[in-house]
UniProtKB/TrEMBL annotation:
Residues 329-508 form the Thiaminase-2/PQQC domain. This is Hydroxymethylpyrimidine kinase/phosphomethylpyrimidine kinase. It comes from Schumannella luteola. One of its GO terms (molecular function) is phosphomethylpyrimidine kinase activity. Catalyzes the phosphorylation of hydroxymethylpyrimidine phosphate (HMP-P) to HMP-PP, and of HMP to HMP-P. Residues 24-282 form the Pyridoxamine kinase/Phosphomethylpyrimidine kinase domain.
Amino acid sequence: MTAAPVHAAPAPSAPRVLSIAGTDPTGGAGIQADLKTIGALGGYGMAVVTALVAQNTRGVRGVHVPDVGFLVEQLDAVSDDVAIDAVKLGMLHSTPLIDAVSEWLGPVRPPVVVLDPVMVATSGDRLLDAAAERAVRELCRQVDLITPNLAELAVLVSTDSARVARARTWAEAVTQARHLATTTGTTVLLKGGHLDGEDCPDAIVTASAVGEVPGRRVATTNTHGTGCSLSSAMATLAAEQLRLAPGTEVDWVAALRAAKDWLTGALEHGAALQVGEGNGPLDHFHATRAALRAVADADADIDADPLDWAAQQWTATAALRAEVDALDFLVGLRDGTLDERAFRWYLAQDALYLGRYARVLARASALAPTADEQVFWARSAASALEEEASLHRARLGDDPDAHPEPSATTLAYVNHLAASADSYGELVAALLPCFWLYSDVGIRLAEANREGHPFGDWLGAYGDPTFAAATAEAIAIADRAAAATGAAERGRMRTAFARSMQHERDFFAVPTTAVGGA
Ligand SMILES: Nc1ncnc2c1ncn2[C@@H]1O[C@H](COP(=O)(O)OP(=O)(O)O)[C@@H](O)[C@H]1O
Ligand SMILES: Cc1ncc(COP(=O)(O)OP(=O)(O)O)c(N)n1
């Protein structure tokens, strides 16, 4: 008898992330915030409730804790049936609950466990008694990442006999986080949310290293649930890293960069939701909402004249394009104040992007319905590779730091292009923003050039008439593809175009955040 061949199971399409936490009926914190965060970042969310909390944006009114036996029943119900890729632990309330979760974690132990040690209320009141605080300190040793705010950090580094005061400066906070990482052997996410100042840094702290991730403070009172959302974002992003590269180590600093980027957007858009009269929630789905709006705007006038298809999409994405123009990266590149490190970061990612983009252009050539279009895409693929070599490799030289791995944003963009390659129309629509936006942004960059401009040689490369002609040809091809197909594919083309525009915006947004400031 021949043994049946063993096939590795394909990876699931999303990381399966379990939140074990309390509730918030207004949806801003606790389990509700966790599930929104996990979904917004592409995960599959699951939830085990530790406590029912009667709270709103103004504060907590009451807490009901079901019997601990029922908590265990919920935990077992999930782990008996589902492979869990990551767990986020939030409000654990009291010693019996903490012990039950700790006992369950022992044998189940998902690959990623993040603990948000909810111990101190926003008012400063301690939420746990001394025994429960001790139990949380012990639990810290069992997890992969701890995400205390400054008040909780002080409690975690205190002992029964010596209470430590809350850190008042970033340097003090780093010292406390290092102490916690050393005594528990666990990585600490140090959060700067409760310090003053225009900046809002966070850091990944271990016993031997501090990886600071800079951030901008958003002027808002919509901060309810930021800690819950950040910790579940970290659990989701870490599990996603392992889904894409099984068997590797989690890069916590990279996860924090991505989480902060998303969280900053969520803080910025929270107030517009108009939820509650106290400290309102974040808008977890701000990016999805923007994408839906762009598609709905395009829907309004689609099919009016398929021959004018590309111009309609250009108009529909006007708001996104205005956002691109106002990004710190492009403003700094125009006025010359851009941090050289951000510029080099951009060049390195652009080079990585162009190599992969060229392959997708070659795929468009393979799908093209006419010889002229086949030649156009093949030439574009060759130009992208020449551009990668001459503009980028020559500038970045042999510096090994200048040739990093593609960032999450770069990968997301090229994956979107590759995923659009099943039909010619959709692929052409996805490729068009790279031509068109580059040409359009280039007009203003070229205008900003002057004698002695620190990026003068780079700005001088814009405004090339050959590229403008290629852009006009790509627009004409997209119009022909839209006219030649039916309404269903035109709908997919519209989505592909709008998504590429969003990826373009994200691509230009990341360099300044990645190195901090403009
Ligand atoms: N006003 C703000 N602007 C930008 N980021 C913020 C702001 N307030 C908090 N954050 C971020 O939100 C996350 C949660 O931080 P923090 O408020 O310190 O914790 P908690 O919500 O647990 O009290 C951190 O990433 C922090 O940097
Ligand atoms: C059920 C529940 N868990 C945790 C919190 C605390 O939320 P957090 O994200 O730390 O943010 P603040 O609202 O305290 O700023 C909660 N309120 N409810």
